[in-house]
Amino acid sequence: MVCSTGIKGDEIDSNPAHVTKRAIWGFGSDVTSCASCLRLRVSMMRVLLLTLLLSGVCCDLNLDGSWRSWKKEFKKNYSDAMEEAYRRSVWEQKVLEVKKHNEEAAAGHHTFTTGLNHLSDMTAEEVNAKMNGLRMENFSPQDDDDNFTFPINFPLPPSVNWTEDGFVTPVQNQGNCNSCWAFSAVGALEAQMKKKKGVLVPLSVQQLVDCSHLAGNRGCFGGLLTNAFHYIVNNEGISKESEYPYEDKEVFCRRAHNYGHCKGYRVLPRYNEFELQKVVATIGPVAVGINANLTSFHHYKNGIYNETSCPSLPLNHAVLIVGYGKEDGRQYWLVKNSWSDNWGEGGYIRMLRNQNQCGIGTYSVVPII
């Protein structure tokens, strides 16, 4: 029998200032200490859960069938009964949160819905530690170009979708590696290579994870978009995915034949989503950083993500803007994530445009080939 503690994952201290250094851009560099603190908290929660179990505090039996179905759908297996009890308790809280949000959405209080997915047995803190790998503390202001404007003398199209036009590879799952920064950078370069060569070829995310440490990245402990492009420039390219496939972990850097090349990159002006729109419309998909801390983002299902409580800082997750549009009077960005196609709208999310939603207009980079 498994139990519900009634404790929300979001209520656990998700801001361990005593183990991390913060900068204006995001988390500090002591990732290992933060991870150790997280493991300690999880262990303490499991002890508490065992106490409740022995005391006869039981789970919601009405959810037994749903729990079994969810585990089967997402192929969940746990090490022991205690681990399953803890994960069940977290999952039950997500069930309640999703239900509450969607009831509010049906009443017109939200522009998007949420749903259970493969992240639903993890606390918000665990998701952020495992899935959000953008390390903005390594960003140098000199890489920014607030004075850059993209010259254009014709009206922008009302909507753009590079995915439909065949410039975007299928959604992947970064898994247990904090490699969002690599997926985002590679996605932007793949589109530019398609424009140049006329064929869409998946490029190697794993090569960036394994080989770009000297450029300032930290493999599965996170990285930076500009550092990724800096590596590609200095290395004179990266390999095809087929020759250097993704492994969901960091391994030894190995030599490979380079296919995707770029001669530089451009960091777009901060807080200027019109300039960002011009680049997306005329050049192609753009790699961007966002704040992905909220449970509503973790469990986004469909609609236009307009979360008033989402802060613009810290930026901790990298995604790929692949287009934009407008629905029911709301302007949005079409964004590709790397959390599998089980998440969101087939792996994508539509985020409110021109309001710097979750900091989406703060840090954006496009490769130059």
How does the SSE layout of this entry go?
Blueprint (H helix, E strand, L loop, with lengths): L21 E2 L2 E2 L3 H24 L9 H10 L7 H26 L5 E3 L9 H8 L28 E2 L18 H18 L7 H7 L13 H10 L29 E4 L5 H10 L3 E5 L4 H4 L1 E6 L11 E11 L2 E7 L11 E5 L11 E5 L1
Parallel strand pairs: 7-10
Antiparallel strand pairs: 1-2, 3-7, 4-8, 5-11, 6-8, 6-11, 8-9, 9-10
Helix pairs in contact: 1-3, 5-7
General form? globular
Percent range of helical residues: 25-40%
The overall pLDDT, averaged over residues, is 87
Provide the number of structural domains: 2
State the main characteristics.
hydrolase, two-stranded antiparallel sheet, 14% strand, 2 domains, 11 strands, 9-stranded mixed sheet, 369 residues, Pept_his_AS, alpha+beta
Structural notes for this entry:
This protein is α+β, with helices and mostly antiparallel strands and 369 residues long. It has helices spanning 31-54, 64-73, 81-106, 124-131, 180-197, 205-211, 225-234, 273-282, 295-298; strands at 22-23, 26-27, 112-114, 160-161, 264-267, 286-290, 300-305, 317-327, 330-336, 348-352, 364-368. The strands form two sheets. Strands 3, 4, 5, 6, 7, 8, 9, 10 and 11 form a nine-stranded mixed beta sheet that branches. It has a two-stranded antiparallel ribbon with strand order 1-2. A hairpin with a 2-residue loop joins strand 8 and strand 9 (330-336). Helix 1 (31-54) packs across helix 3 (81-106). The chain is globular, with a radius of gyration of 21 Å. Residues 1-32 and 54-58 have low confidence and may be disordered.
